[in-house]
Amino acid sequence: MPSQDPRVDAYIAGAADFARPILAEMRARVHAACPQVEETIRWGMPSFTHAGAILCGMAAFKRHVSFGYWKHALVMEGAERDGMGSYGRMCKLEDLPSTARMRADLKKAIRLNETGVKPARPKPAPKGAPAVPDELATALKEHEAAKAAFDGFAPSHRREYVEWIVEAKRAETRAKRIAQAIEWLGEGKHRNWKYERG
């Protein structure tokens, strides 16, 4: 007998009339493919875990139901995700994939979890050096020590100063920030030097 979380029972019971049979069928299919699966509620929706990792989840919305694999790209072999779901929006039982197809996909997801395969997470492209506003560039030219410190900082530290100055709404505030930046830069300080551990 599969272990079922009463919170998932309550979620299904509280769903719209059209969604309840879809949710119940998907839940049954997950348990049939993976008797050891554990149910829980994550992010307010039913979620299934196996081998210490999220396997899949499902959710009911106003007009459709979604079912998605945590490792969607690996399970569905690169197929685009439709919103939150691996099988698109389901509004009636006939919209579910065939039992055989879903079982095969679930078995793939199970193997991925059991072998510890993790989805590839693309690293964000590094941000380049920030565009220095004209007023700051002019002030830096007039203060060699500040310019040397600013030029020697990593792009992230230069960006902190630039963003702080650019986000000022009033010209007076901007001028004060530039003056403060030149002072701190002249002392070789990062923008957030007060919070750095020394």
Q: Report the radius of gyration as a whole number of Å.
A: 27 Å
Q: Largest sheet at a glance?
A: 4 strands, antiparallel
Q: Describe the oligomeric state of these chains in a short phrase.
A: single chain
Q: Classify the beta-strand content into a percent band.
A: 5-15%
Task: Provide the residue-averaged pLDDT.
Answer: 91
What's the gist of this structure?
This protein is of the alpha+beta class and 198 residues long.
Describe this structure in words.
The protein is an alpha+beta fold and 198 residues long. It has two domains: 6-114, Aspartate Aminotransferase, domain 1 (Alpha-Beta Complex), CATH 3.90.1150.200; 134-195, no CATH class. Helices cover 45% and strands 12% of the residues. The chain has eight helices and four strands, in the order ααββββαααααα. It has a four-stranded antiparallel beta sheet with strand order 1-2-3-4. The longest helix has 16 residues, at 99-114. The mean pLDDT is 91.
